[in-house]
TrEMBL record:
Pfam families to which the protein is assigned, alphabetical: DAO, DAO_C
UniProt source species: Prosthecobacter fusiformis
Residues annotated as domain FAD dependent oxidoreductase: 18-373
Protein name according to UniProt: Glycerol-3-phosphate dehydrogenase
Cofactors required: FAD
Presence of keyword Flavoprotein: yes
Keywords, sorted A to Z: FAD, Flavoprotein, Glycerol metabolism, Oxidoreductase
Keyword Ion transport: no
Entries under InterPro entries matching the protein: DAO_C (IPR031656), DAO_C_sf (IPR038299), FAD-dep_OxRdtase (IPR006076), FAD/NAD-bd_sf (IPR036188), G3P_DH_FAD-dep (IPR000447)
Gene Ontology terms: biological process: glycerol metabolic process; glycerol-3-phosphate catabolic process
Length: 519
């Protein structure tokens, strides 16, 4: 992925693209991969960085949705379980099986949850992970030594998927590019181009250079997540809102709060949602909440009531209760929920919706990371019809994602790069100084920053510390201290001056302060 070459191609291009996609999150990147693999010409633009919003702020789980069984939505569970299996197979460097324990504190919980999880196992079929089973009290304590033991009767263990969301987003962008797509971050859709009543392209603004260009397209897909209604109103100012955004927050705690490699699933919190405590990158991710919000933001912030809710819920299940001083980072994400007549966002649809306006603008809304591939298949099928493109078979269910390589569990953190890890190690061979960590409390290496700039289109310190690595989520304070080192390395690669470095560090540290809990 080369940003300068892509900009030059856009400026000189006279032929329309088959498909232009606005939005560089899970749904947009998945659609770009699908369309490019089918052989269509594709342009994807993202106003900020890939996965800047919702798609980098998940619970880091690839799941069928145990709670959807309770709602009777078997078809959604079936689809998600199939997609979970495909993700494990097609991106093994990023997606893996993780054991979850549901601790039982009442006699009826074992049979109640056990039967549901056996159904969950059965629905997964040949793409299933390990089968669920009952645990006695001693088994639960052995797996979860920090679990609250008073009244504990036993538990149930089942398996679901875990992944690194923004790393998968970067790999999808690379996959799309390898199949001929042009993918660009920091290029904003400033408006739509119309021929009469029909959408025929997009007006683009490069956020770095200020350059503006009009691009023609046979079909335009709006895959902007929580911002989808804004793009719809570029087409029709009177368009009614399709989405009802909901905010979820997560805490990141030190590993001692959940030693071992087993997650906790709390099946019912005070607001009726499930709560997870999940080992991830040597830390523990705890969440999530479900709070309706009035408007979408690129940088949502945790609300006081959400913070207290998580402290209250998780403290019931751990022998050592976390305090504010223990929280390494707190992050918030917005879910693009499809509007429905419901009193609570927990009941709104997580399934995806494809809407086609009178002008031919296609909007892909809703969904979740687990089903990104199926969402992409569905929307490109529609795009071929709306854009009068040749219908071509979707083959992404068999497509290995960039970097896909089976790596042994427990290896260096570089295994998240898959086959690209060899390239990072080669940089260290040339310059051993690049093997130094960015910070004593972070495992990420200087060589990774060079790789991010050269091969992953990282443009800012935030791109590196928030999404190429996960330093911001894993330890916000340490990431702030690492920012000057990252800025210096990036400036050398990008040809930036000292003023750029200073501005980048200041901008990043202001951002990162929002990931710290106030005392």
């Amino acid at each position: 992925m080369n940003r300068l070459a892509s900009l030059a191609e856009l400026s000189s291009r006279s032929e329309p693209f088959d498909v232009v996609i606005v939005g560089g999150g899970a749904s947009g990147l998945g659609a770009a991969v699908d369309a490019a693999v089918r052989g269509h010409s594709v342009l994807l633009v993202e106003q900020a960085d890939f996965a800047k919003g919702t798609s980098s702020r998940s619970t880091k789980l690839v799941h069928g949705g145990v709670r959807y069984l309770k709602q009777g939505n078997v078809s959604l569970v079936l689809e998600a379980l199939r997609e979970r299996g495909l993700m494990c197979r097609n991106a093994p460097h990023l997606v893996h099986s993780l054991p979850f324990v549901i601790p039982n504190y009442h006699w009826w919980e074992g049979p109640f949850y056990g039967i549901g999880l056996k159904v969950y196992d059965g629905l997964a079929g040949k793409l299933g992970l390990e089968p669920s089973r009952y645990l006695n009290r001693e088994d639960v304590i052995e797996l979860l030594p920090n679990i609250e033991q008073q009244d504990l009767t036993g538990g149930i263990i089942y398996h679901d998927g875990q992944f690194d969301d923004s790393r998968l987003a970067i790999n999808l962008a690379q996959t799309a590019a390898e199949h001929g797509a042009i993918v660009m971050n920091y290029v904003r859709c400033a408006g739509l181009v119309k021929d009469g009543p029909h959408v025929s392209g997009v007006k683009l603004h490069d956020e770095e250079t200020g350059q503006e260009v009009e691009i023609r397209a046979r079909v335009v897909i709006n895959a902007t997540g929580v911002f989808a209604d804004e793009v719809r109103r570029m087409d029709d100012p009177a368009a009614k809102a399709m989405l009802s955004p909901s905010q979820g927050i997560h805490f990141v705690l030190p590993r001692e709060f959940l030693p071992g490699d087993t997650a906790i699933m709390i099946p019912k919190t005070d607001d009726g949602r499930v709560l997870f405590a999940v080992p991830w990158h040597g830390r523990v991710v705890v969440g999530t909440t479900d709070t309706p919000v009035d408007s979408a933001s690129l940088e949502p912030r945790a609300l006081d009531e959400e913070i207290e809710f998580i402290f209250t819920q998780v403290s019931r299940y751990l022998t050592r209760d976390p305090t504010r001083a223990d929280v390494l980072s707190v992050y918030a994400g917005l879910r693009p929920l499809i509007k429905a007549d419901a009193s609570s966002t927990a009941a709104l649809s997580r399934d995806h919706l494809i809407s086609i306006s009178d002008s031919g603008l296609i909007t892909l809304a809703g969904g979740k990371w687990t089903t990104y591939r199926k969402m992409a298949e569905d929307v490109i099928d529609h795009a071929e019809m709306i854009g009068a493109l040749e219908h071509r078979h979707c083959s992404t269910h068999e497509l290995a994602v960039h970097g896909a390589i089976a790596t042994p569990a427990g290896s260096s953190h570089l295994h998240y790069y898959g086959s690209d890890a060899a390239g990072i190690l080669a940089l260290i061979e040339i310059d051993p100084g690049l093997g130094e960590p960015l910070h004593p409390k972070l495992e990420f290496l200087k060589a990774e920053v060079i790789w991010h700039v050269r091969h992953e289109m990282a443009r800012t310190v935030e791109d590196v510390l928030s999404r190429r690595t996960r330093a911001l989520l894993l330890d916000a304070r340490a990431s702030m201290e690492a920012a000057p080192v990252v800025a210096s390395l990036m400036a050398q690669e990008l040809g930036r001056d000292a003023a750029w470095e200073t501005a980048q560090v200041a901008t990043y540290q202001t951002l990162a302060k929002g990931y710290l809990l106030p005392d």
